[in-house]
Amino acid sequence: MMEQFKANSYLFGGNAPYVEELYESYLDNPATVPDHWREYFDALQNVPAVDGSNANDVAHAPIVESFAQRAKANAFLSRVGATDMAVARKQVHVQSLIAAYRFLGARWANLDPLKRQERPHLPELEPAFYDLTEADMEEVYSASNTYFGFEQASLRDILKALRDTYCGTLGAEYMYISDPTQKRWWQERLESIRATPNFSAEKKKHILERLTAAEGLERYLHTKFVGQKRFSLEGGESFIAAMDELVRRGGERGVQEMVIGMAHRGRLNVLVNTLGKMPADLFAEFEGKHVDDLPAGDVKYHKGFSSDVSTAGGPVHLSLAFNPSHLEIVNPVVEGSAKARMERRGDLEGSQVLPVQVHGDAAFAGQGVVMETLNLAQTRGYGTHGTVHIIINNQIGFTTSDPRDSRSTIYCSDVVKMIEAPVLHVNGDDPEAVVLAMQLALDFRQEFKKDVVVDVVCFRKLGHNEQDTPAVTQPLMYKKIAQHPGTRALYAEKLVTQGVITAEEGDAYIKQYRKAMDEGHHTIDPVLSNYKSKYAVDWVPFLNRKWTDAADTAVPLAELKRLAERITTVPENFKLHPLVEKVVNDRRAMGQGEHALDWGMGEHLAYASLVSSGYGVRLTGQDSGRGTFTHRHAVLHDQNRERWNDGTYIPLQNISENQAQFTVIDSVLSEEAVLGFEYGYSTAEPNTMVVWEAQFGDFANGAQVVIDQFISSGEVKWGRVSGLTMLLPHGYEGQGPEHSSARIERYLQLCAETNMQVCQPTTPAQIFHLLRRQMIRLFRKPLIIFTPKSLLRHKEAVSNLADLATGSFQPIIGETDASVDAKKVKRVIACSGRVYYDLIAHRREVKSKDVAIIRVEQLYPFAHKAFENELKKYENLTEVVWCQDEPQNQGPWFYIEHHLMEGMKEGMKLAYAGRPASASPAVGYYAKHYEQQKALLEAAFGRLKGATLVQ
């Protein structure tokens, strides 16, 4: 058998991929390779690797090394004749040609409907590159490692099969995938049909009907609403046929929900022709009706929608996410929403919920959030078991059609190779190929639960919007576009030629769609108007609620002690680190009333009480398990076992027998994508407390788009309710400009119409009640909490169990020192956050008894009545000073000034005590920090000396 192998094999460097692929097949299933190869690979299992280890540990190195040594020694030539050797060499060359087409064939595919560029020079795809000539074309070679339907064939037939499969209107990229099973899946699916669809006449008619709908809507809007922006899909109509196939086939493959994210291009078309939005409702938006539905509202091509569509496999719920203009920022939001829906269903493998992302070509290559979101795909906390990505590749972006200016890669999709997602490039002028690509993409996702990309190469008939004149910047491209008859017309002509329809039938499709538009009817059938899934969330209890600070957040003392016992219980033989062991022991004492509660204990008891009451908690961030400042320790680590070997224990998951889910995740080092993900999760799950924690408060700067365009404004723009909580460590500790400030001023600038809550609690009891209030009140608003650093262990920043068993969150905390004589008080210092503890320490130092200190714990919405009531306690009050750590142009000052004045009586003076205005959040030298801190404290108590007088 070895002689047979030697007579039919020869390897040199250029053919290494072929043998390596054989070896991968052997490792996966030895029966899939020819007998002589299997014998050889069996023998190699005992060949030692270069480092002396067993060859099984190094899959490819022994193979390559073994053949290299044989070639050097002329081992083959000494045993076989020259003629046999020449035939063997030709056979290996043929296998190399096959491998080359699998790797590079997409580069020669017929993808561009405008045919603007010549096929690139790729000698690896020419037989001559492998010394194969015209004389070899009729020779018969083995094709046993292919799925073309023949074991051997002439070189001419093999070459034709390769070009039909990999160089037609569908070009596939998948050979960079490391899993041989997935690679073989693609080879079998593509090669067995030559990447060519074979649809029935009825299927072809349905595709034409969908193309007619896509084109018909655009032309109807173009004539009825002249000059209005709609971001037309014209030139990319095959995308609607692809979406239709995704929904229909998805239902047959078990998908019950799809969460869809997309930017402007083609969005109105998807709303009407995929989700079934009534055309009459869309027209009303064009005509400016329903302007009072939302406080702010948004343009029609940003709005979301949901519907239920009937498929052969059952109803499929479609949800199109609301999104702003910021290109790809909706990507992580969609993933988060999909994750929440999966967990609600108990869909552990993602078989029932499918995320779908629709991208533009230039944005997909250019926006960093795309890479950040892709990087979440296979992680435990954020993975959604595969997303179907569709790129509407109109080859121009905004005005940059030259790839040299829009990206540094061959394809706009190349970033997905980082997660080994396969890509199907397809010519948008071949709608059948587009539909086939979508079938393959969905089947792959459902089979392997991995991301997959369909890159629909098309064009943009009009400008970026309908008011642009694109020929100004792309004259030659738009000359070709002007000559293009349209995808629908080309396909209708093709079907007429095939005898599938008559020309009159093709025209009837157009008239029928136009009639539906005129009457404002559904354009897809059937939309299930009265269907409601048992997994649907009822948001009604959370809507149209007026703001209130009141909530019954107290927990009975006995229950607090039980919760404390559960969160300090560690399994037997679980070895804690000595530092963590001390934390756990201290918390046990706190729960027994022997020690005052610190911040970490107050936070833990809040989470424990929520999950015990049926509210889920999802806590994520870059160091959330331990806590950046090692205060939390929600995840305990056994010092004798690795974390992946049952080496962790999470007490908050073991509170009660039927408790809600507690999830804590140390996230990837991303802010934008992770915060977008958590926002998306919160919009789909109101009964889970979703918490994102920045490692340092200023890290949220990297997610500013999510904060500006979703968190602060999503409700007034779209009516989209979210209870997302953000924990942002904040505090001036003299450690330099970075990480001192969470930029309080930015959040306060975004506040209006009670759109969110901005709080800076100063005690463990306050964080306990604040976190509980967020879930117990029957409305959901984003909550921004500026959490402390040094206060986490400050000896005065403590509470006791009684504070948790009674009371509630206090937006304003008045003077707590009984030695301060209210009748003598002429000055009140108002402040927020850690500076309070500096102020009371300074007051003790200067022995002041006539200055009261008020803490503003909730900056927005400002508790005017509570603040006014505190001022009323001091009948001789003449001065109010706002004191803050932050520079004057930062922090709460400019926001809070008018709120303070509103509670003051006529004749009172208002002053500012704090750092001077600064371009940097904080100074970098500790000595200068200390000097500034001393000055602001003295100004706060100095009878307006050193303070900035406002009135």
Automatic annotation (TrEMBL):
This chain's source organism reads Pandoraea thiooxydans
List GO terms (cellular component aspect).
cytosol; oxoglutarate dehydrogenase complex
Task: Extract the PANTHER family matched here.
Answer: 2-OXOADIPATE DEHYDROGENASE COMPLEX COMPONENT E1 (PTHR23152:SF4), 2-OXOGLUTARATE DEHYDROGENASE (PTHR23152)
Report the superkingdom from the record: Bacteria
Function noted in UniProt? E1 component of the 2-oxoglutarate dehydrogenase (OGDH) complex which catalyzes the decarboxylation of 2-oxoglutarate, the first step in the conversion of 2-oxoglutarate to succinyl-CoA and CO(2).
In its UniProt record, which GO terms are filed under biological process?
A: glycolytic process; tricarboxylic acid cycle
Q: Gene symbol?
A: sucA
Q: What is its EC number?
A: 1.2.4.2
What protein is this chain from? 2-oxoglutarate dehydrogenase E1 component
Q: Which family does it belong to?
A: Belongs to the alpha-ketoglutarate dehydrogenase family.
How it assembles, according to the record, is: Homodimer. Part of the 2-oxoglutarate dehydrogenase (OGDH) complex composed of E1 (2-oxoglutarate dehydrogenase), E2 (dihydrolipoamide succinyltransferase) and E3 (dihydrolipoamide dehydrogenase); the complex contains multiple copies of the three enzymatic components (E1, E2 and E3).
Residues of the Transketolase-like pyrimidine-binding domain: 597-794
Q: Which reaction does it catalyse?
A: N(6)-[(R)-lipoyl]-L-lysyl-[protein] + 2-oxoglutarate + H(+) = N(6)-[(R)-S(8)-succinyldihydrolipoyl]-L-lysyl-[protein] + CO2
The leader peptide range reads none
Necessary cofactors:
thiamine diphosphate
Enumerate the GO terms in the molecular function aspect: oxoglutarate dehydrogenase (succinyl-transferring) activity; thiamine pyrophosphate binding
Question: Pfam families recorded for this chain?
Answer: 2-oxogl_dehyd_N, E1_dh, OxoGdeHyase_C, Transket_pyr
Q: What is the lineage of its organism?
A: Bacteria, Pseudomonadati, Pseudomonadota, Betaproteobacteria, Burkholderiales
What keywords tag this UniProt record? Glycolysis, Oxidoreductase, Thiamine pyrophosphate
Record bears the keyword Phosphoprotein: no
Q: What class of enzyme is it?
A: oxidoreductase
